[in-house]
Design goal:
Elements (H helix, E strand, L loop, with lengths): L3 E2 L19 E6 L12 E8 L2 E6 L2 E5 L3 E6 L4 E7 L3 E8 H6 L4 H8 L4 E6 L2 H14 L3 H21 L1 E3 L18 H14 L6 H6 L5 H12 L3 H19 L4 H7 L5 H12 L3 H12 L1
Parallel strand pairs: 1-2
Antiparallel strand pairs: 2-8, 3-6, 3-8, 4-5, 4-7, 6-9, 9-10
Helix pairs in contact: 5-7, 8-9
């Protein structure tokens, strides 16, 4: 069983630092924290907001997370809580991406998360308050059997959400219908490619480089990646670079050239071309827009 950290505390003073706990489960119950910066990490994150609501800045968009309903997103997307309303508390559950993929949820459900969507359960269950408090109590006992039971119950609770129905908040720029093929058999390769890209996207990397870590032929790796992620490997690398650049534009006063280099773009012209192609605005226009949102 993968290691479980009952308390994962993120360093909000460093907006883009990878936290090093992506292979561990995590659990927190706490008052909502307004973050000074956006941050990211490799988990699938589950949120519950009880007797409170929150405003997030995610992928350059302001979204509202409602109280009482289960919320899921892939936390590799830079995200920042900018405000909260109410005197309640929130529950954060951090699930390693690899473990989440092995749970074999419906492919369209996984695909939406891996494409950067925020999923919100359609159903609100009053029992979630008692259930999450029970998980907190069980984990505090550091009993392997109880911990395994908590993992199983979290998996079952997410599965309930996936079959009861959920809404997407439109964070992802591109939406698609259901997967035409079940990608589960290839998700271990997807996970390997995602991890490699996450560690090297700010460097010069090629499709053969990405495919090599899986042992797959580059052509097959490209087809598998596109089938699951709905974008090409090159597009995904550029998307991570863009997300990095977007977070720096929001969180720092660095110049555009410095941001382009730090995010892994080979030239300032390429950065501008891809940025405008994907977001239909210049980096400076994006900075101005997001500063107004977060002000």
């Amino acid at each position: 069983m993968q290691e479980w950290l009952q308390r994962i505390i993120f360093d909000y003073s460093s907006p883009l630092t990878r936290q090093g706990n992506e292979d561990k489960f995590g659990f927190r119950i706490h008052s909502p924290d307004v973050m000074p910066h956006s941050h990211w990490h490799g988990h699938i994150e589950v949120n519950f907001l009880f007797n409170c609501e929150a405003e997030y800045l995610m992928n350059g968009r302001k979204i509202y997370l409602p109280q009482g309903r289960m919320i899921l997103f892939w936390a590799s997307i830079p995200h920042q809580m900018t405000a909260s309303v109410g005197d309640g508390y929130m529950v954060n559950i951090y699930i390693p991406l690899q473990a989440f993929q092995q749970w074999k949820f419906p492919s369209e459900f996984i695909g939406a998360l891996l494409r950067g969507e925020v999923l919100v359960a359609e159903q609100c269950h009053a029992a979630d308050v008692a259930l999450t408090q029970l998980w907190d109590k069980d984990l505090a006992q550091k009993n392997d059997a109880l911990t395994a039971q908590v993992v199983s119950e979290i998996r079952g609770r997410i599965r309930r959400m996936s079959v009861e129905g959920y809404q997407t908040l439109g964070v992802s720029d591109k939406t698609t219908g259901k997967e035409q093929k079940n990608p589960v058999a290839g998700l271990s390769h997807i996970d390997t490619m995602l991890r490699y890209i996450a560690d090297h996207y700010d460097q010069k990397i090629t499709i053969p480089d990405v495919a090599a870590v899986t042992g797959l032929h580059p052509n097959y790796a490209m087809k598998l990646f596109h089938r699951v992620m709905k974008i090409s490997i090159k597009q995904y690398i550029n998307r991570l670079r863009l997300l990095h650049a977007q977070a720096l534009l929001v969180d720092t006063e660095q110049g555009v050239l410095t941001i382009a280099i730090e995010a892994g773009f080979g030239s300032i012209s390429r950065f501008y071309d891809i940025f405008q192609q994907e977001l239909q605005m210049t980096p400076q226009q994006y900075r101005n827009k997001t500063q107004k949102i977060s002000a």
